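Researcher: Please translate sequence to C-alpha cells.
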Amino acid sequence: MNISTFRAFKSRNYRLYFTGQSVSLIGTWMQKTAVSWVIYTLTHSTFMLGLTLFASQFPSFLFSLLGGVVSDRYNRYRVLLTTQIASLFQAVLLAVLILMKHYAVWEILSLSAFLGVINAFDVPARQSLVYEMIDDKADLPNALALNSSMVNLSRLIGPGIAGIVLEKIGDGACFLMNALSFVAVIASLLLMKLPKYVSKPHTKNVFGELKEGYTYIKRTPEISFIILMLMLISLFVLPFSTLIPFYARDVFKGTASTFGIIDSFIGLGAFGGAMFLASLKPGTNLKRILAINTLVFGAGLVFFSHEGNYPLALVFAAVAGFGMMSQITISNTVLQTTADIKMRGRVISFYAMAFFGMQPLGGLLIGSVSHIIGTKNTMLCAGIIALLIGLLHMSFLRRSKMQAQQAQLHEPAIDAA
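Model: Translation complete:
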C-alpha cells in the first residue's frame, strides 16, 4: 500500500464526506446488528430475519428509480442533506421505541421500511455527489474504492461494538448511539464548499426521464451486463448474512458478542478487499477481478456453511467477505466511470434497485428455503450459486475477448478492400 491508495483525499470536500460518513456508518452497522439480534431473540426464526431484510430494503427497490430521477433533476447536495436528516429522525424514533421496552416486531419492521424509503432517495444522490466532491476526476475510482473500505471498516467495527454493547449495556444503547452518529455526517455536509448549483430545464416529465434512463442502459451493454450480474448475486447470494444469527446462537452456542464477531470477520475480509481495490493501478481490468472474486466469495461460503470449528469458520467468513467486496465496489466503479454525467443518477438508481431490490426478495427466499433444507445447506447452496455466477462471468469475458479479436482481424481485410 502506498500514498496513491489515498489520492482522493487531496479533495477537501471528499475528506469531509469520508470523515462524517465513517462515524455515521459505524452507528448504522450497530443498528443493523442490534435489529437482527432483537428480532431473532423475540422470534427465534430465520424466516423473520429474512422478513426484516425485506422490510428494510424492498421500499428502496420500489422507490429507487424515482430517487434516481430526483437526483438528476434537483440539487443532489440538498437531496442528500434532507435524506440524512430524515435518517436521523428515523434513528431517534427507533431508539426511543427500544428504550421504552414496550415494542413489537411489527413496529421495528415498520421503522425499517421507513428507512428503506429514505435510502431510495439517499443512495443515488450520495453516489452521484461523490463525483462533484472530487477535484481531479481521475481520482474517482480511487474515491469509490475508499468509500467501500469505509463501509467495510465500519462493518468490521460496528457489529463488534454492538455485540459488546448489547451484552453489557443493552439494545437501547445501540440504537441511541446510531442516532447520535448522524450528527457527524450532517455536520460534514454543512462544512462542504461545492460549486454553485445551476438548475437545468426539464423537457420530459418524470416517467419520460425514467424511460430515457432505461433506454440508455439497454443500449449500453457494459452497463446492462454489470447490473444483471449484481441482480443475480443480490437475489441468491448476498442475503446469506441473514443466517449468521443462527450460526452464532445454534452452531457455535454463542451470545450476541459471537454474532458481532462473525459479522466483524466478514467485514474484516471485505475491508481487505476494498483496500486491495483502492491500491490497484489505473487501467486494471476490473471486470476480470470481479469475476475472480465472485469465485472467491462462493468458495468462502461453501467452506463456511458446514464448518463446526469456530476459528476456522471465522477465516472462511473473512474469505467470503473479501470476495463479496467486489460485487458492490467494482459494479459501482464501472457504472460511475462509464455512465454519461446526465444519466448518472438514473444509472445509479438501477444499480440501487438491483442491489436493494433483489436482496429483500432473496432474504425471503433464503429464509423460506432454510426451513425446508436446513440453514447449513441453504448457506452451501448460496456459495455454489456464487461459484456458478463467477464461472458464467468468466465465460462471458472470454467470449467478449474472442469477439474483439475477430473484429480486429477483419478490420485490415475491410481496409484492403
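Researcher: Any highlights?
Model: Residues 261 and 280 are 29 Å apart (CA to CA).
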